[in-house]
Amino acid sequence: MNTDASTIEAWLEGRVVAYGKVDIGSFTPETPLAELGLDSVYALTLCGDIEDRFDLEVDPTIVWDHPTIRSLAHGIAGRLAAAA
Amino acid sequence: MSTADHAVLDEAPTVRAARRVVREFERHLGDPRDAASVIPVDRSVGLDERREFPADAIAAVDELGLQRWYVPEAHGGELRDFLVPMLMIRSIARRDLTVAVAHGVTFLGAVGAWITGGPIARTMAELVLDGGPVSWGLTERGRGSDLSNTATTASIGGHVVLDGEKWPINNATRGRAMTVLARSSDQPGPRSLSLVLVDKRRVDAATLTTLPKVATHGTRGADISGLAMRRAVVDPEMLVGEPGHGLETVLKSLQLTRPLTTPLSVGAADHAIGVALEFAVTSPAVGGPPARRPSTRSTLGTAVADGLLAEAVMVAAAREMHHATHEMALVSSLAKFLVPNTVDLLVREIAPFLGERSQLLGVAGAGGFQKVARDNRVVGIFDGNSMVNLNMIVNEFGTIARPDDPVDASLVVASMRHDAAPDGWLDPGRLRLVTRRGSRLLRALPGLVDLLGPRESARPARRIASELDRVVDLAAGAPRAAMPSARSFELAERIALCFGASCAIAVELGGPDAAGAASEARLRAMLDRIAVRLGVLDAASASASASLLGDLALEATRDGRRLSVLEGWEAAP
């Protein structure tokens, strides 16, 4: 599985659109997740999705520390590299 | 208290010593009907009527050293097994819930420092071991349960400068220190709050003002007041954890404090049931004591079953803190919802049996009941009210419904065994804001039912297990929403009841006489009652097991005993 930050970023964009709160093209990787309708409940869902996709255990605090798609993608890539 | 008594309480790390500590603590508190005891019920009722703080009782509990069990061993205290302070708090609460609430809050105020560690843990430990009450300054006037609305500010530089008001806060006035949640950044989001320890002795008194005591419905004597800080300057070393990590620390603290509040309700249940049983065996009613009436046995038995369920959930939650630390996000909410809720129910249902005695003062044994009925309502409110806890369960629907890891029910039972030692103080690094797979206790329910084999109690247990299956399927399909529907709240409540069944079975199977008739009678009545509450068994079908339990409870009362899922725990060698 390709786990570089840009691939993860594209996957995250797909997830955010799948949650149905925003349309594709209406946001950038720098838009704060909170503005994408990603409230604390969806943050929990996202954590589950990250775990399923990357086999990586994350707590919702990852979204607190990485509040945009770009930052979050880097955060996930960093943890995957650390776990490898 | 003599030096010899201290030696008993000073004893050490084995399960056996833990039992002795709890037994000795209970013995020191004495019979509350005795005016010379530490917490006599008549004095408690009088103080409550006058809304006076129970200062003598608190001083006596300080003298017994309960605060030492709030501090982990690594920081110089006695805390190794959460069940020990929980059972001591229960012993106090069964006499006077106000005293338990006033003393126990120090654990709430301190626990954040045990989670973050670092030098602040040493400072906090010294403060608690010195007997200084610590309060927990989370809420603010007009801002509800959502801590992200916190308006008190902490400007962090060479010093920390605090501005704002914390209200209503237990022990805000009499407390020596308060752990304050404050906004340390203008940036929106959960990393904008910090925790700061305000030791009143180390802050300019002119910058602190206490706010008047609030008149409460229950625990009327407690110091429920507030603290205003006006440019109060605190050393940066008094930060509890990193700047910006306050909300995370609080959310993790709540996972430990919520189980710690369950013995308040369990003690309240002990008190309420004790009044009813005593009335049943002694009342000189026409035609003999009420204990002879069949409806009495069933009413009392149902209340006793509810009390035992509350106790079993308390014990299981205490064990899970050590054995399933990573699942406490969910377990703490399940327990904090179910225990006060169940005890409220038993108090409401037993009140008509007591008749006017449930409301009156000045009738033997009656003043205590009306006080405990009001006091327990408070437990359901603080540290996250019932709706907050149900919402936490709703948020976990996704993890509860995930394809499950197989769980070995016999391993779950093994960690509930009466002689099971905890692994020692828990690793706070294992606390998570959300679980990965819900609770192993919930997942173990079908396996636990199998372990019951041919026992009668397996029948209601199977009904509850299939109800859990159904409810988890529904939860998996429930819409995700920041404001869950009433339907989701109802599902969360049903999951909590099923969790209660798991706790009851696991704790009973972990007892020293798991196969005995007494254990089976307790378990059958608890499970029948849960099945009735879930609507999968009609009340008439549950009356036989309730009546049997009622008989056992009446017999125990005549012998000066009390039924307990921990039967044999304190007495065992």
Automatic annotation (TrEMBL), chain A:
Protein name: Acyl carrier protein
SMART domains per UniProt: PKS_PP, PKS_PP_betabranch
Keywords: Phosphopantetheine, Phosphoprotein
Gene3D superfamilies: ACP-like (1.10.1200.10)
Organism annotation: Agromyces ramosus
Entry GO MF terms: phosphopantetheine binding
Signal peptide: none
Span of domain Carrier: 3-80
Classification of source organism: Bacteria, Bacillati, Actinomycetota, Actinomycetes, Micrococcales
Automatic annotation (TrEMBL), chain B:
UniProt-listed InterPro entries: Acyl-CoA_Oxase/DH_mid-dom (IPR006091), Acyl-CoA_Oxase/DH_mid-dom_sf (IPR046373), AcylCo_DH-like_C (IPR036250), AcylCo_DH/oxidase_C (IPR009075), AcylCoA_DH/ox_N (IPR013786), AcylCoA_DH/ox_N_sf (IPR037069), AcylCoA_DH/oxidase_NM_dom_sf (IPR009100)
Gene Ontology molecular function: acyl-CoA dehydrogenase activity; flavin adenine dinucleotide binding
Every Acyl-CoA dehydrogenase/oxidase C-terminal domain range: 244-394
Superkingdom of the source species: Bacteria
Ranges where the Acyl-CoA oxidase/dehydrogenase middle domain occurs: 137-229
Coiled-coil features, chain-numbered ranges: none
Gene Ontology cellular component list: plasma membrane
Acyl-CoA dehydrogenase/oxidase N-terminal domain ranges (all copies): 47-106
Keyword list, A-Z: FAD, Flavoprotein, Oxidoreductase
Entry cofactors: FAD
Family: Belongs to the acyl-CoA dehydrogenase family.
Protein name: Alkylation response protein AidB-like acyl-CoA dehydrogenase
UniProt source species: Agromyces ramosus
Taxonomic path: Bacteria, Bacillati, Actinomycetota, Actinomycetes, Micrococcales
